[in-house]
Amino acid sequence: MKGKLGLLASLVLVCNYFPVATAQGSPNSKNAVVVDGTNFELHGDHVSYRFHVDDSTDDDHPLAGDLLLDHFGGSVFGPIPTELVPSTNGWVGMQGRVRREFPDQGRGDFRIPAIRIRQSEGYTVTRLQYQSNTVVPGKPALPGLPATFGSEEDVTTLVVHLYDKYSDIAVDLSYSVFPKYDAIVRSVNVTNKGDGDITVESLASLSVDLPYQDLDMISLRGDWAREARRERKRVDYGVQSFGSVTGYSSALHNPFLALVDPSTTESQGEAWGFSLVYSGSFEVNVEKGSQGLTRATLGFNPKHLSWKLGPGETLTSPECVSVYSKDGVGGMSRSLHRLYRKHLMKSKFATEDRPVMLNSWEALYFDYDQSTINRVAEEAAAIGAQLFTLDDGWFGVDYPRTDDDAGLGDWVPNPARFPDGLGPLVENITDLKAVNSSTNLRFGIWVEPEMVNPNSSLYREHPDWVLHAGSYPRTETRNQLVLNLALPEVQDFIIDFMSEILNSADITYVKYDNNRGMHEISSPSNAHAYMLGIYRVLDTLTAKFPNVLFEGCASGGARFDPGILSNFPQIWTSDNTDAVDRIFIQLGTSLAYPASAMGAQISSVPNHQTGRSVPVTFRGHVAMMGGMFGLSLDPAAIPEHEQAALPELIALAEKVRPLILKGDMWRLNLPEESNWPAILFISEDGSQAVLFYFQLNPNVNHALPWVKLQGLDSQAMYSVDGNQTYSGATLMNVGLQYEFDGSYGSKVVWFEKQ
Ligand code: GLA
């Protein structure tokens, strides 16, 4: 066996030698994919991904026709050293010792497989062998699923066709390379070419085997009101797994993974980032196998799949973005941010200006009527807000939504609160002039379309529209149940009532909420069928109402994922509006998602979630690091000095907004590591930058730290807040010093390139 593999190794060496475009210059969409026989090279500006087909001619050899990964990391060209053939002493066969590109199951690789199919006969063995490949300019859309997109200039796609001749199953692996972003986006199609039904029990969108080396893994965990806490730990032998079985991506874990060298920091070292473009249950596995190689898989959660395929039917996996950076965790994040702003978010608002919003939730909760709403809207306009949003509590006729145990599903204005409906209310509000602004106040509304309270007319009429498993009791959370979005009639119901609301008045913003996970589902596959349903609804609504700004929400950030961002350019990051907690949450979220996507608001103190009181300027500075800046408070109910500070904070938020929406984010100091968290945003053209600098605890009788900037042009001169001018080199190598009074100090510093 060893002799055969030795021959195989030398063949691979020969096949791997050919000049590629990186030798001549920077890769672009034309030379991003290079195919030479059965050797494949994918190149971004600073990344190469190389794999080949094992060309063992003896079909009995377990690796014959397998795809083997040669390299995923910094750019390479020309020949690369052939991986030494592992010895096969012991019980782990050759398959368990090599870097397999799409590991199937049941034939001796004992690590986590990327695919597990139950054949009609009941077997769960598959043998996927290379057949052919296709290179496609641009990037085909994924049927029914959110996906990155780009022109032929931006992206090239390689599709590798695999086939299991024993059970007639075709698997197509798709790799789309966005060279400018060092991003390779992968997805998988499984097609049943046989005569009987098969069931896909598990399917990873991406599986990658990294060589023997120490690695750390970084993920985001949390719960309600404490989303996106960064977790870093050493990858150990065995499987380290996280995911969601909630039916949505959830606040418990985010569908994001980074693998980094143990020495990697925010600004230096190798980092691989993986981000699953999906909003449903998912699973991430990181397995260091017995031989020390590390396998990572991201994809469907097998507990919510069991997807049946009849003859001729196909299952398409969600796609998974992978990026590589040598510039640390920060470099990895910036690649994802840029890619997502330009090639994921379909909304015209992705990089467009957004209005300053005042939301009624923390101002009034459920306690209001038409005159209260008019009053708060007038106050909003008077302090310079440009959009007033009516949050929960405006609907329900027979089951009025005056608290959270009734009304969801009955999307008709509550006549006791709004006797003339929404029309006159919206007219009244949109007649108000927003001070310091050329526009009138706009109107936005809250909805939670996928949910129903048992106390509702909708539930009385359609109890069968709710997720349920036979006669099992329907488990309530926050007094509500989940509509089964897998049903076309439920999808149509949502599209129709939403269209009716949006056509009924001049509504330019929607907060689209979703406040619980799935309960009893009829079968595991119901979960993905639901996701296909929700994507149809979101696609239809956003296409029908392109001028409406949609904000996703799920009790805060419980559905903060790329699948939602494909349709909605922003998501309410957390129900926790405490500014100190928000620094952790927003910076954690920024590991994978751009600041432009984050909704952030100033609320009143003591904070409603934590009881902490933080100065209004600090609260404002944290909130303006989000793409959608706003307030959730009753302006009349806050102290006068806070009221007086708001117009200036709003003006500052508007000044920094273009950099938040389109600029690059540099996390200079992390709140987990420093008492002085610091974040720098640099404009796309590099001509402007803004520093957000915070002090969390008092610094009594102690020297002051310097904050060193990053990402500037070291040769250029920059004015600092219009005063002193320093070179980029000075700002990055010496830094700046600021003093704060007491705890919770904050500074926003503006830099202009001279
Ligand atoms: C969720 C949202 C909040 C608010 C309430 C209304 O919790 O995250 O912002 O809209 O619902 O019920």
Automatic annotation (TrEMBL):
Catalytic center residues: D513 (nucleophile), D575 (proton donor)
InterPro entries associated with the record: Aldolase_TIM, Alpga-gal_N_sf, Alpha-glycosidase_related, GH, Glyco_hydro_36, Glyco_hydro_36_C, Glyco_hydro_36_N, Glyco_hydro_b
A Gene Ontology molecular function term of the record: alpha-galactosidase activity
Keyword Oxidoreductase found: no
Signal peptide (UniProt feature, chain positions): 1-23
Gene Ontology terms: biological process: carbohydrate catabolic process
Domain Glycosyl hydrolase family 36 N-terminal per the UniProt entry, residue ranges: 66-309
Binding-site residues for substrate, renumbered to this chain: W224, D391, D392, R478, K511, Y512, D513, N514, N515, C553, D575
Tree of life domain: Eukaryota
Reaction(s) catalysed (UniProt annotation): Hydrolysis of terminal, non-reducing alpha-D-galactose residues in alpha-D-galactosides, including galactose oligosaccharides, galactomannans and galactolipids
Cofactor: Mg(2+); NAD(+)
Keywords of the record: Glycoprotein, Glycosidase, Hydrolase, Magnesium, NAD, Signal
Record EC number: 3.2.1.22
Ranges of residues in domain Glycosyl hydrolase family 36 C-terminal: 676-751
Group of enzyme by EC: hydrolase
UniProt entry tagged with the keyword Hydrolase: yes
Role of this protein: Hydrolyzes a variety of simple alpha-D-galactoside as well as more complex molecules such as oligosaccharides and polysaccharides.
Subunit note: Homotetramer.
Family: Belongs to the glycosyl hydrolase 36 family.
Protein name per its UniProtKB record: Alpha-galactosidase
Species, as recorded: Helicocarpus griseus UAMH5409
